[in-house]
Amino acid sequence: MELQGQNGLLATFREPWRTRGGVAYAVAGALIGFYTLLYFRDHLGVAGGALDPEAWAAALGLRSRWLLYGALYSLAMIGGAAYYLRRHGNARYNRWRIGVNVGVQVVLAFTLPLVMPYFFTGDPGQFWKYEYYFSYFWPLDWYKLHPGSLQNVPVVFAIYSIVGALVAAPLLAYFYGKRWYCSWVCGCGGLANTFGDPWRHLTSTSTRSWRFEKRAVHTIMFLAIASTLLLFLDHLVGDRNATFHRLIDGGQWWSMKSLYGYVVGAILAGVIGTGLYPLLGPRVWCRNFCPMAALLGLFQKLGRFRITVKPDMCISCGNCTTYCEMGIDVRSYAQSNESFTRAACVGCGMCAHVCPRGVLKLENAPKLQADKKRTGLPVVNL
Ligand code: SF4
Ligand code: SF4
Predict the structure, then answer these.
(1) E-only strand ranges, 8-54
(2) Sheet of strand 306-309, all strands in order from the earlier edge strand to the far edge
(3) Which sign, positive or negative, has the C-alpha torsion 194, 195, 196, 201?
(4) What's the pLDDT at 375?
(5) Residue nearest to ligand 2 atom 6, measured at CA
(6) Ligand 2 centroid distance, CA of 253 (Å)
(7) How far apart are the first and last CA of the chain?
(8) What secondary structure letter does DSSP report for 5?
(9) What are 124-179's pLDDT values in tens digits?
């Protein structure tokens, strides 16, 4: 009964739109085109025309194209959630996780930023100060810990930004793994798990991809941390060093702050990160470029979360590896009876869900070594 409920599991490789066919390329092209217009409308000269997302937003009575994006994002997640739950909603973990994902997006990442400004100020020029996104933390929302941002938002939001990023997020990742964020709260993960679910099996499991992932994601994490520190330094020295200020936060497109915004925020997170869902799987951004995923992954490695393997049960069907959206070769651990913690694992639980033998279990129990004693099996921490 449980397995029958996994509606469509075997259809994974039979549907052309899910296997890099023509339709997949068309969807990827449409997504890339949309993100290019959204982020680069000022540079493309489409302002005010039929292709201008600001004009679409105004036509719908929304304050900016970012709120239009939030509305479309929420709709994509709701549609994707229905698709996902139809296939995998037979497990309570999946129902709760996707329900929370969609709830966080609709309430914290769309409705509150939309309505909060109307309650807090009557001055439209100050609206942006109250358009606050509670579900995004530094370094994913890179601007949140910039000195300028911290000074300009209401103090309660500034405290939330600091405590959320530097205390709550790492602590929760230590105790529960990064799944609390990457698979339950984050909008990028939420979109990947709902709208992106049809393409999760396209994620590469090759060693070359793994090497690229480790280098790329830690480089972006380093850049996010270093650039935030440089912005604080720039704030401290201020006008006393005009050249340093121009390089770091001068407002020109080539200043470090602008470049990070364009390359990481617009191209890697949006145009490539989401545009390539139908060709490379739904976690291109999370896996290769997200600084938050990299940082929380380090705490996950030090912490309690792991995937435990029941000894001598695996039949090597490979479902777990196929369905891992982070490209982790779960089967190799299961075959060798090794429980494991991988920094990349977002704790989506799909490997355990699709396993026909119930071999895998996601756990946060405090004593990793207690398991080792109990089973006499090695615990791998990579
Ligand atoms: S190892 Fe399992 S829980 Fe972790 S990301 Fe892969 S499928 Fe999800
Ligand atoms: S752990 Fe389960 S899903 Fe993975 S290969 Fe073994 S039997 Fe198949």
Answers:
(1) none
(2) 360-363, 306-309, 339-341, 379-381
(3) positive
(4) 55
(5) 314
(6) 49
(7) 36
(8) T
(9) 667 777 899 999 999 999 999 999 899 989 999 999 999 999 999 999 999 999 99
Cα–Cα distance between 365 and 377 in angstroms, integer?
16
Structural domain spans, the chain: 1-303, 304-381
Q: What is the average pLDDT score of the chain?
A: 91
> How big is the chain, counted in residues?
382
Beta strands in the chain (DSSP E): 306-309, 339-341, 360-363, 379-381
Q: Which two tokens stand for residue 108?
A: 């914290």
Pick the CATH number of 304-381 from 3.30.70.20, 3.30.565.40, 3.40.50.2000, 1.10.10.10: 3.30.70.20
Contact 183, 347 (CB under 8 A): yes
Which residue's structure tokens are 């075959």? 335
Pocket of ligand 1 (CB under 6 A): 307, 323-326, 328, 330, 345-351
What integer pLDDT is reported at residue 121 of this predicted model?
Answer: 62
User: What dihedral do alpha carbons 168, 171, 175, 179 form, nearest 10°?
Assistant: 60
Res. 235: pLDDT tops 80: yes
Best mutation site among 331, 337, 339, 362 for ligand 2 pocket (most ligand atoms within 8 Å of CB)? 331
pLDDT tens digits for range 335-373: 999 999 999 999 999 999 999 999 999 999 875 555 555
The residue with tokens 């409705």 is 111
| Residue with CA closest to ligand 1 atom 5 | 345
Q: Which atom of ligand 2 is nearest to the CA of 318?
A: 5
Residues 6+ apart with CB under 8 A from 333: 307, 309, 339, 340, 380
Query: Cα–Cα distance between 41 and 271 in angstroms, integer?
Result: 13
